[in-house]
Design brief:
Oligomer: single chain
Largest sheet: 6 strands, mixed
Strand content: over 45%
Radius of gyration: 13 Å
Order of helices and strands: EEEEEEEEEE
Number of strands: 10
Distance between the termini: 40 Å
Number of helices: 0
Length: about 120
C-alpha cells in the first residue's frame, strides 16, 4: 500500500513563496516519476509538475513554468514543489502522485495540502 503525506501548504500573499513536501511511504524509487497536481475550488484536478525518478526530466504546466520547481530526494522518499511568485489563481489543494510514466497520473493520491494565495 502506498501512503502519501503532503505538507507545506498555507496562506501566503501574492508574490510570496511556499515549499511543498510529499513523503512516499513505499519509496520514491519504486516509481518512474513523481507528479504534483492541484484542484482549485469548482474545478477539475490539473497537472502542475512532474519529474522522472532520476531527476533527468521535468515537465510543467504552462501556467507555472518559470515560477515552480519540482525536485526529489530519493534517500528521504520525498518530492518537493518550490512555488515562487504565487498568484491568487494558484489557490488550490495540491496533491503528489507517484506514477510509472511522467505526465500520466496513477491512482495513488494523498489527502493533499491547501495553498491559499490572498492579500
Amino acid at each position: 500500500q502506498v501512503q502519501l503525506v503532503e505538507s507545506g501548504g498555507g496562506l501566503v500573499q501574492p508574490g510570496g513563496s511556499l515549499r511543498l513536501s510529499c513523503v512516499v511511504s513505499a519509496g520514491t524509487t519504486r516509481f518512474n516519476a513523481m507528479h504534483w497536481y492541484r484542484r482549485a475550488p469548482g474545478k477539475q484536478r490539473e497537472f502542475v509538475a512532474g519529474i522522472t525518478s532520476g531527476g533527468t526530466t521535468t515537465k510543467y504546466a504552462d501556467s507555472v513554468k518559470g515560477r515552480f520547481t519540482i525536485s526529489g530526494d530519493n534517500a528521504k522518499n520525498t518530492v518537493f514543489l518550490q512555488m515562487n511568485s504565487l498568484k491568487p489563481e494558484d489557490t488550490a489543494v495540491y496533491y503528489c502522485n507517484p506514477a510509472h510514466l511522467i505526465g500520466v497520473a496513477s491512482t495513488y493520491w494523498g489527502q493533499g495540502t491547501q495553498v491559499t494565495v490572498s492579500s
